[in-house]
Design a protein that fits this description.
The chain is of the alpha+beta class. It is 33% helix and 34% strand. It is built from 6 helices and 8 strands, in the order αβββααβαβααβββ.
Length: 169
């Protein structure tokens, strides 16, 4: 009789575990990570933020801050003149699920709301393409952008998508 009770307890424990673990995947989740890379003898921190609905990647962004002193390593003369007023500079590579909401436009809108200007990043992108991570992470599928701020000391960049918690980049 005691054996049947143990079997029932194990069975119902398993069902409870299964029920609660499956419920986790019906939520919106956010994942963040970072790693150090060397590019043109400059050490940069490549960070990533990914927004998921259940197990589907809705929006993914890799970003890194670039020091104004390092600009001549990554940009050509014409781009340097456009970026001359930048005191804070970020390079981003973003990917958005085509069938999802327009999170890419919302992402750019939130940067602009925080007084950032955006520029294309063709020269930096061609330099970054030589890094081994570019191909291994399939970054050719991502859209490049440079965001520039006229002040050196800025608060953390806040990004908030509906139904997700706010994050600071």
């Amino acid at each position: 009789m005691n054996l049947n009770k143990n079997k029932k307890t194990i069975f119902f424990s398993f069902l409870a575990f299964l029920f609660f673990s499956c419920g986790y995947f019906s939520k919106n989740t956010l994942s963040q990570s970072s790693q150090k890379i060397f590019l043109e003898k400059e050490q940069l921190t490549l960070k990533r933020a990914s927004w998921f609905r259940e197990l589907t990647l809705l929006f993914d962004v890799y970003y890194m801050e670039i020091s104004p002193a390092a600009l001549p390593l990554f940009f050509k003369d014409l781009e340097l003149s456009a970026l001359s007023s930048c005191k804070s500079l970020y390079f981003t590579l973003s990917y958005v699920l085509d069938t999802g909401p327009s999170l890419d436009k919302e992402f750019e809108k939130q940067w602009k709301k925080q007084n950032f200007s955006s520029f294309s990043a063709e020269t930096f992108l061609s330099t970054f393409k030589t890094h081994p991570l570019f191909e291994s992470l399939s970054l050719q599928l991502y859209r490049p952008k440079v965001y520039c701020h006229p002040q050196a000391q800025i608060p953390p960049i806040s990004i908030k998508f509906s139904n997700f918690k706010e994050i600071s980049l």
